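Contributing new complexes? Match this layout with flavin mononucleotide.
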Amino acid sequence: MSFLELAKRRYATKKYDPTKKISAKQINELKEIIRLSPSSINSQPWQFTFVTDDIVKKELASQSYMNEPSVNDVGLLVVFSVMEDIKYFEKHNISILPEGWITGFYEPMIKSNGDAATKTWMEHQVYLSLGYFLSACISLGLDATPMEGINREAYQRILAQDGFAPLFAVTVGYADLSDWMHPTVFPKSRFELDQVIRSI
Ligand SMILES: Cc1cc2nc3c(=O)[nH]c(=O)nc-3n(C[C@H](O)[C@H](O)[C@H](O)COP(=O)(O)O)c2cc1C
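Output block (do not edit by hand):
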């Protein structure tokens, strides 16, 4: 199937079929794919937590507001987190990069803007991996939903994360065909091409 066809097919799934769970083989493939996600100067300031354990998933579901039922029904929940400590990030992720990337880009264009701007830039890299991941899911025939609507502090506590802070999570599974958001029922809504694309 072409990428355009896949883009039309993927949608933010609101209701999953609890009887159809993602396989261990597909989970392993998604792990390999997300590891290969690109990031600015290959900085990789992230951690991806794959949750399949029903007890942990139930706890996270209770902190997922309106998505609580879908987190409970789905087979896989992936939590996307950003590295918290900039000093550790620079020692572990930046210092191993080619010198020119550090002195020519990271130091003058990112670090020089201060800690808050550096953290925002790190978060951008994690968000970029979301787009990559959503495309990977639909290419494997899997439905998925990104969720910023989670209690991030509670997620961090439940997952006992050290040094990483959750930004958002993604449910991955098979849509229930009665889902009211399914594109065959609720057509995709986007601005027209000429409203969002300029060709010069
Ligand atoms: C970063 C991000 C965060 C989102 N957070 C939520 C969320 O918390 N709950 C939810 O049901 N959908 C969430 N969505 C899904 C969007 O509402 C959805 O992608 C958008 O309406 C476009 O619809 P489509 O993905 O079905 O084409 C999120 C999407 C993105 C990209």
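Reviewers usually confirm one structural detail per submission. For this one: The chain has one domain: 3-196.
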